[in-house]
Amino acid sequence: MEDKPPPYSEKNGFYNKAYDASLDIAQLEGRKSEENRKLQKEKELEDPWALPDLENTETPWGELDTCGKILRVAWLITRIIMFLAFLYFFICSLTFLSDGFKLVGGKSAGEIFRKNEILSNPVAGVMIGVLATVLVQSSSTSTSIVVGMVGGQLLDVKTAIPIVMGANIGTSVTNTIVSMGQIANKDDFRRAFAGATVHDMFNWLTVIILLPIEVITGYLYILSDKIVNSINMNQDFEKQEFLKKITKPFTNLIIILDSKQITNVAKGEDVETLLKDCCVKDTVMQNVSSLVTVNETIVASVVEVNKTEWGMEKVKVCVEKCEFAFKHSGLNDHEIGAIILVGALIMLCVCLLGIVKTMNSVLKGNIRKAIRKFINYEFPGRWSYFTGYIAILVGTGLTFLVQSSSIFTSTLTPLVGVGVVSLERMYPLTLGSNIGTTTTSILAALATDDIRLPLQVSMCHLFFNLSGILIFYPLTFMRFPIPMAKHLGMVTSKYRWFALVYLIAMFGLFPAGVFALSIAGWYVVLAVLLPIALLVIFVGVIKVIQHKKQSCLPKTLQNWKFLPVCCRSLEPIDRTICGQFTCCKSCNNKYEDEEASFEGNQHNGIPTRSDNTKL
Question: Which of 148, 158, 146 is nearest to 224 (CA)?
Answer without folding.
Answer: 158
